[in-house]
Amino acid sequence: MASNNTYSHSINLRYILESQKLSRKNFLDWEKNLRIVLDCERKLYILDIDPPKSPAANACASELTSFKKYEDDARDVKCIIMASMTVELQRLHADMEARSMIQRLRDLFQGHPKNSGIYVIEVNMSGFTSWVMDTGCGSHICTSMQNLHEVRHLAEGEVQLKAPFTGHGERVSDVLGLIHSDVCGPINTEARGGFSYFVTFTDDLSRYGYVYHMKHKSECFDKFKEFRNEVEKQLGKSIKTLRSDRGGEYLSLEFNDYLKEHGILSQLTPPGTPQLNGVSERRNRTLLDMVRSMMSLTTLPESFWGKALLTAAHTLNRVPSKVVESTPYELWRGTKPNLSYLRIWGCDVYVRRLMMFGKLDSKSDRCKFVGYPKETKAYEFYHPADNKIFVARNGTFLEK
Questions:
Q1: Neighbours of 283 (CB within 10 A)
Q2: pLDDT digit string, tens, across residues 49-108
Q3: For position 325, what pLDDT does the model report?
Q4: Mapped to the 3 state alphabet, what secondary structure does the chain carry?
């Protein structure tokens, strides 16, 4: 009887999903309701935990039973999600598993608002049955004015749609007083490790910056926690303010509750004013320009942009800046940076082999320099023949 009551209660709770189908405007509320339903049905773990590996052929009965339960629950969760979508979204996600589906939806609906969304109030897309992607500029063109519910005609002589930005923000007086953050991506080519995004955290006073790779935008919250734990322990100070745009990755309930719990003030820029988050916007632009230049001077595959990005950030923290009197590193660490170990990224390097199997074997391998490991005082090298990256203390650099 208890089991039947629980099942009946779950069916009733599912009504909160079925009563309002998922759309761009209600994603945050929809996901919150979905988690409530799955938590009630003891299936929330499907979205939060990595799927188990398939059991071996000789696995015990308990392992087979546990894996079978996971498969059944995962199928139920997928059906619940699909049933709460519009027909168009169902077609896009029909071949995906539940966990991948949620990640895709977060990337789709929690992205940055586009400028067109400020002026076009509502577009009725119910009559569309297919989409065509323009890979050149990516613009969406509505061919019928009937699809625009609300537009405004400009008055005669009205050209300028908004006033020029003339504001200048005040600098804080201590490190970690204000952290600027922004997410960039997706990058067309996945970096090694499957990364398509990166997030930056830049200190306002010193302009010292951290960069983290991400597979999905939704990882931004975890990266901020990782960043906060490191810098507060290293500097013995606390982050006071986090400034970001209105990207959905910064607006989740978990993120905001975490900031409130730790006394961190969240500053969100007004819609359509990226200038107010100019430090992060400029940092991301500078990093991408550096990566583009570095990649153009090497024969490494495009998937190495992730390594180039980390190297660019490493270098940027150690060179003089117009904004600060010395270098970001000196203001952040309190000591002048050592630049003698810096090398040209992507250059050829001869690295001595640790083991030789024959007396006539070569004593070194020709590799590529691809970065500075964070965990040790050494270099990262790429061995093209083995397609592997390894760490070594030194090598003979063929810099030109």
A1: 22
A2: 888 888 888 888 888 888 889 999 999 888 888 888 888 788 777 888 888 888 878 777
A3: 83
A4: CHHHHHHHHHHHHCHHHHCCCCCHHHHHHHHHHHHHHHHHCCCCHHHHCCCCCCCCCCCCHHHHHHHHHHHHHHHHHHHHHHHCCCHHHHHHHCCCCHHHHHHHHHHHHCCCCCCHHHHCCCECCCCCCCCCCCCCCCCCCCCCHHHECCCCCCCCCCCCCCCCCCCCCCCCCCCCCCEEEEEECCCCCCECCCECEEEEEEECCCCCEEEEEECCHHHHHHHHHHHHHHHHHHHCCCCCEEEECCCHHHCCHHHHHHHHHCCCEEEECCCCCHHHHHHHHHHHHHHHHHHHHHHHCCCCCHHHHHHHHHHHHHHHCCCCCCCCCCCHHHHHHCCCCCCCCCCCCCCEEEEECCCCCCCCCCCEEEEEEEECCCCCCCEEEEECCCCEEEEECCCEEECC
Residue-range domain boundaries for the chain = 13-110, 178-333, 347-397
CATH of the structural domain 178-333, one choice from 3.40.50.10490, 3.40.50.300, 3.30.420.10, 3.30.420.40: 3.30.420.10
Residues in the chain predicted with pLDDT less than 50, given as ranges, are 1-3, 6-8, 112-128, 131-150
Residue with tokens 């696995």: 59
Contact 110, 247 (CB under 8 A): yes
pLDDT reported for residue 133:
47
- C-alpha to C-alpha distance for 218 and 248, rounded to whole angstroms: 9
d(CA 103, CA 119): 29
Distance CA 27, CA 107 (A): 11
Identify the pLDDT of residue 153.
Answer: 59
pLDDT score, position 270 = 83
pLDDT for res 183: 94
The answer, as to whether pTM is greater than 0.90, is no
